[in-house]
Amino acid sequence: MNNIDIFLESVKNLQTVGTLAFSSKHLVKKMVEPIRFAEARCIIELGTGNGCITRALLRRMKPDTQLLSFEINDNFHRMTAAQLHDPRLRLINDSAENMLPYIYESGFLYADYIVSSVPLVSLPKQIEENILNSVLTTLKPSGLFIQFSYSTILLKKIEQTFGKKNVKVNFTPLNFPPAFIYVCKHNLNNAH
């Protein structure tokens, strides 16, 4: 897919893609900054898109770390599969709601990190709930969920899900549009 095809695909599927432009290098850097790659054995990415965050994760991952990357859009999934060939990467053409069976199939009980570009605020409320519940089920205790959004509308829901003291908000103005990054620590005592 060329840039025009990517743009048209984004317009056609704006509710699930969530943007007309892909993440800048500044946003990608802020998304992967909180990850301790030396300790990570399993990372999940929600919303592969054009693979910009996927590539950043693969560049920093250890040789034995596994990346499960979910993309519901068939065209973006095919595009990324054609471009990225790495034995540590498993591209999955399925909803982020369905993470758990895939992580078990890959030989893990939990993910150490979940990095998400899924536009939670534009999805139907039930799907948003299902994805956040799936994150809580799939993420190890003390693991991090890293989500970006173009507004703070999501903040209250994220704080309810993870507990206010377990959520940090970062901001990057060097993205179009500027983005908020929620870094959420999974703490079994404070979630829900």
Short description:
This protein is α/β, with parallel strands linked by helices. It has eight helices and seven strands, in the order H-H-H-E-H-E-H-E-H-E-H-E-H-E-E.
Helix content percent band: 25-40%
Order of helices and strands: HHHEHEHEHEHEHEE
What is the CATH domain class?
Alpha Beta
Specify Rg, calculated over alpha carbons.
15 Å
Rough shape? globular
How many strand units?
7
Distance from N terminus to C terminus (CA atoms, Å) equals 41 Å
Strand content: 15-25%
What is the third-level CATH name, the topology? Rossmann fold
Contiguous helical run count: 8
Number of domains: 1
From the coordinates shown, what is the CATH architecture?
A: 3-Layer(aba) Sandwich
Question: Can you describe this structure?
Answer:
With 192 residues, the chain is of the alpha/beta class. The protein has a single domain, classed as Rossmann fold (3-Layer(aba) Sandwich), CATH 3.40.50. The protein has 8 helices and 7 strands; from the N terminus they run αααβαβαβαβαβαββ. It has helices at 3-12, 14-17, 25-32, 52-60, 74-83, 99-105, 125-138, 155-162, and strands spanning 42-46, 66-70, 89-92, 111-116, 139-149, 167-172, 179-185. It has a 7-stranded mixed beta sheet, with helices on both faces. A hairpin with a 6-residue loop joins strand 6 and strand 7. Helix 3 crosses helix 4. The longest helix has 14 residues, at 125-138. Residues 1-11 and 13-20 have low confidence and may be disordered.
